[in-house]
Specification:
This protein has 328 residues and is mainly beta. It folds into two domains: 2-272, no CATH class; 284-327, Type 1 dockerin domain. It contains five helices and 18 strands. The strands form four sheets. Strands 3, 4, 5, 8, 9, 10, 11, 14 and 15 form a nine-stranded antiparallel sheet that branches. Strands 1-2-16-6-13 form a five-stranded antiparallel sheet, with no helix packed on it. Strand 1 and strand 2 form a beta hairpin. Helix 4 (287-295) packs antiparallel against helix 5. The two termini are 34 Å apart.
């Protein structure tokens, strides 16, 4: 793990590259949760015993090791870039598909005009007393019977802009949910339709422009210290030994001895000041902070006193200070 920190009066910038700290194959018949050497993702359509995104992989990344403490208000976190990578086991010959397919094409495969199915990355949600933050990698798939839809304790979730809800998208075709994933898996140097080979590295560049992206990544109120994801796919297996995507887990000997990589997360996160108008850091927004703004008047390179971040210290910054007058 490598983490670099830079600080200013406004933000601490943390650049990091951390390995997965928890990975679990979320499949009803996984007999060795938390200890598997590989996990697969595949889909099943129209079976009431299984979710459409049937086999999923839960991935958790501990960012406290990179210098981002738990307990921060989610409002203090701003992500500038975030990329997840994971190596393919490649036990099956699967055509590479870096494009999203329509819901209709899962119900009617003839509508999918290109070979293969994409691997998609989602935020992780929890139920039955679990959140994605406190779910252990050897935790239960479900409370009660693992058969049925909508029963898994941790699942792929997305934000619905119409209802302002976070939804389980494991059955998005049945439930008519068209929310986009955080990212689609890409493999550098591979042409769509080509076979994915063992040890190919799949990369997910997370779309940080999505609505509610901060909450999807860090939670709603306080950051728990861990960022949690789910991998999924509509790739339908030919049988239970072939025809599906498979990825290295951190317990795999190839990962342990450095021949392959399980999940890793790299990026840059800014930890914003809880009180950006407190320019002299005395715990109070007041006249002394107005004097700081006046002292840097018309400055175009004074980030600390450019409270509203418009590139120029001026009257709008005085108004920003006045708007937050009082104790932090």
């Amino acid at each position: 793990m490598i983490a670099a920190l830079a600080t200013s009066l406004f933000a601490q910038v943390v650049t990091f590259d951390v390995p997965v700290s928890a990975d679990r194959w979320m499949y009803p018949f996984n007999a060795t949760p938390g200890d598997r050497v590989a996990g697969s993702v595949f889909g099943v359509y129209g079976n009431s015993s299984f979710d459409e995104r049937d086999a999923q992989i839960f991935l958790g990344f501990d960012l406290t090791e990179a210098g981002i403490p738990s307990g921060l208000s989610v409002d203090q976190l701003r992500c500038d870039v975030l990329t997840l990578t994971i190596d393919v086991v490649g036990i099956n010959e699967i055509p590479y598909d870096p494009t999203l397919d329509s819901n209709e094409s899962f119900a009617d495969p003839s509508l999918d005009l290109d070979p293969g199915r994409a691997v998609t990355l989602w935020s992780a949600g929890g139920r039955e007393g679990f959140t994605a933050c406190d779910f252990p990698e050897d935790g239960p798939f479900a409370i009660g019977s693992p058969l049925g839809t909508g029963v898994r304790t941790v699942y792929c979730q997305a934000f619905n802009e119409d209802t302002f809800e976070f939804l389980d998208v494991s059955n998005s075709v049945r439930d008519d949910i068209n929310s986009a994933p955080l990212a689609v898996g890409k493999i550098e140097g591979l042409t769509p339709g080509q076979a994915i080979l063992p040890y190919d590295r799949m990369e997910f560049e997370i779309d940080l422009s999505q609505p509610a992206i901060r909450e999807l990544l860090f939670g709603v109120d306080q950051f728990c210290g861990r960022v949690n994801f789910v991998l999924a796919s509509w790739q339908e297996p030919t049988d239970m030994t072939a025809g599906f995507h498979s990825f290295f887990m951190r317990e795999n000997p190839d990962v342990i001895f450095g021949f392959a990589s399980a999940g890793s997360l790299a990026g840059q996160i800014e930890i914003l000041s809880p009180c950006p108008s407190d320019l002299n850091n005395d715990g109070n927004v007041g006249f002394a902070d107005v004097l700081v703004v006046l002292g840097d008047w018309a400055c175009t390179s004074c980030e600390s006193s450019d409270v509203d971040g418009d590139g120029l210290v001026g009257f709008s910054d005085v108004l920003s200070v006045i708007a937050t007058w009082g104790d932090c």
